[in-house]
Amino acid sequence: MSGGLLVAGTTSDAGKSVLTAGLCRWLRRRGVKVAPFKAQNMSNNSVVVVGPDGRGGEIGRAQAMQAAAAGVAPDLRFNPVLLKPGSDRSSQVVLLGEAVDTVTAGNYRSMKPRLAETAYAALAELRTEFDAVICEGAGSPAEINLRDGDFVNMGLARHANFPAIVVGDIDRGGVFAAFLGTVALLSAEDQALIAGFVINKFRGSREILRPGLDMITASAGRPVLGVLPYEEGVGVDGEDSLSYAADRTLMTTGPRGTEWLRVAVVRLPRLSNATDAEALGAEPGVRVRFTTDPAELIDADLVVLPGSKATVSDLAWLRDTGLAGAVEAHAAAGKPLLGICGGFQMLAESIHDEVESGRGHVRGLGLLPVEITFERAKTLARSHGEALGAPVAGYEIHHGVVTKSHSPPLLRYADGRPEGAAERNVFGTHWHGAFESDEFRRRFLTAAARQAGRTGFTVAPGTSFTAVRETALDLLGDLVEEHVDTAALLRLIEDGPVRGLPFLPPGAPARA
Predict the structure, then answer these.
(1) Average pLDDT over residues 321-328
(2) How far is Cα 320 from Cα 318, in angstroms, rounded to an integer?
(3) By CB count within 10 A, which of 16, 140, 386, 489 is most buried?
(4) Residue 69's pLDDT is what?
(5) pLDDT in tens, 81-107
(6) Could you confirm whether 341 is annotated as catalytic?
(7) pLDDT the model gives residue 512
(8) Which residues form the CobQ/CobB/MinD/ParA nucleotide binding domain (predicted)?
(9) Same domain, 445 and 476
(10) CA-to-CA distance for 419 and 429, rounded, in angstroms?
(11) How far is it, in rounded angstroms, from Cα 168 to Cα 440?
């Protein structure tokens, strides 16, 4: 086998990342050497990958999870262009793992040719090393105002001569109109590459859906290749803000003891690496909820201030919304408070930032006796050490560094250097992914439950975060095998685009 496929979507958060991961796991089971690829990702949910030269770089966490599904080590080439939004108008550009520039809508267009060249070169290399490359699109290919210079959706498919399938989330409603509209808005050349559709998150009997499947096949001239049922626990690390909306709740199974541990995660405007909370939610009996409600913070057992791509801006938002007061009230009540990366920086007495916000000296929440200074060089590292008597590993992505501390550390690097802070019931660390270390997570949650007065909460000693993730990826592979026309997919990957598909003029009436 030697080929590839583009997984496009009717919208953001339609299920592209999930389907791509499922396809990678399914192909791996068949003995296919497969790689995931996303030419350009816009996300603050990233992970550090160490390249062959030993240098650390960033890619989207979704691509790292897809690599796990494929059974290969994450590679900077899997996500050659990463845009990290710092505001509504600007994003940091990460090229093959390295931050190289900041772009706005105005100067992004002039940068596109360079970004496209890098993406196409990365894909060409992967195609020489892997039997198949499963590409994930971005947003929707029908964003016709963005088609000129596109190298993520149909521009990529045209360049590589890859067939494309379009996935739509039926849970949102209007999926058939979205399928037909997506195809109709494309040019004839782009339409020629759209080979079929996959419906995501269907609830109920497929027979009830049959008239719609038949009609969209007739109307669009392309088959529905699969209907994936709605299943809990099949998500991969999200990349869109939609994945971590306020009021989203994460939990696995009920408590092992007699009480839940309720964790409230502040849903910051520039939230980054929210997957840290998913590691907490993997523990039985831990209920994790993203929220912007001050009352939920005061009522929670543990409050988490997560990472942020705009620490100073999000700190101002905390104060403007009254959430800062709720965070302070929670800590004053003696209940545990945890800050991770940007959230840790907000807990400091002071922040000096001439890099990210340009605001200079800013007063922090003052809940940890540390001072933070932003440096122009970004720290990118995979880190190992010890915390609470347990081994811990994580990764670092930050400009801010601790320049003064009067607090005991929360963690220590393998060489003994201190990291983070632990002051009575307030904790902070720059390490993302630390709570994926099972024994450390259990010890931290046990201590947090005790501080919160949840004496009936008990951890489950056998919980493995890696096993939880592997189970989810296996389930995705199962769903693809059971609910998608895999024979048709193999033909597409091996043989390329289907010839002779009909062209749908925009606005054409549906064919019965």
Answers:
(1) 97
(2) 6
(3) 16
(4) 97
(5) 999 988 778 899 999 999 898 888 778
(6) yes
(7) 42
(8) 6-234
(9) no
(10) 7
(11) 39
CB 187 within 8 A of CB 504: no
Instruction: Find the helix or strand (DSSP H, E) in which 9 lies.
Output: strand 3-9
- What 8-state DSSP symbol labels residue 338? E
Mean pLDDT for the stretch of residues 446-467:
93
Give the count of beta carbons closer than 10 Å to the beta carbon of residue 370: 24
Write the pLDDT tens digit of every residue in 4-26.
999 999 999 999 999 999 999 99
pLDDT band at 238, cuts 50/70/90?
Answer: low
Residue given tokens 């669009």 in the structure block: 220
Closest by CA to 17, choosing from 226, 221, 207, 243, is 243
Q: How confident is the model at residue 395 (pLDDT cuts 50, 70, 90)?
A: very high
Q: How far is CA 238 from CA 17, 84, 275, 366, in A?
A: 8, 14, 8, 31
The per-residue pLDDT for range 43-55, each reduced to its tens digit, is 989 999 987 777 8
Q: What are phi and psi of 402, to 5 degrees?
A: -75, 120
d(CA 475, CA 492): 23
Token couple for 150: 């596109």
Model pLDDT, residue 236 = 58
CA proximity to 153, closest of 132, 138, 166, 143: 138
Looking at the fold, whether 310 and 335 belong to one and the same domain comes out as yes
17 membership: H or E segment, kind and range: helix 16-29
Distance CA 85, CA 55 (A): 23
pLDDT greater than 50 at residue 29: yes
Stretch (H or E) spanning 481: helix 465-483
- Domain of 169 in residue numbering reads as 3-235+470-495
* Whether residue 186 sits in one domain with residue 328: no
- Inside any domain, residue 244: no
In this prediction, residue 167 carries a pLDDT of: 98
Catalytic residue among 399, 430, 432, 483: 432
Widest Cα–Cα separation across the chain: 73
Band (pLDDT 50/70/90 cuts) for residue 404 is very high
Token pair 């929360």: residue: 410
Section 178-183 average pLDDT: 96
143-167 average pLDDT score:
95
Please classify residue 232 by burial: count the beta carbons closer than 10 Å to its beta carbon, then call 0-12 exposed, 13-18 middle and 19+ buried. exposed
Report how many domains make up the chain. Answer: 2
My answer on whether 326 and 427 are in the same domain is yes
In a shared domain, residues 178 and 229: yes
Query: What is the spatial distance between Cα 45 and Cα 230, in angstroms, rounded to a whole number?
Result: 24
Any catalytic annotation for residue 24?
A: no
Residue 500 located in a structural domain = no
Residue 397 has a pLDDT of: 95
Strands 350-353 and 286-291: unpaired
**Which residue among the candidates 24, 135, 341, 430 is catalytic per the annotation?**
341
Q: Are residues 491 and 393 in the same domain?
A: no
As a whole number of angstroms, the distance between CA 22 and CA 5 comes to 13
CA dihedral (489, 495, 500, 502) positive or negative: positive
If you ran DSSP here, which 8-state letter would residue 387 be given?
E
Choose among 184, 143, 173: nearest CA to 507: 184
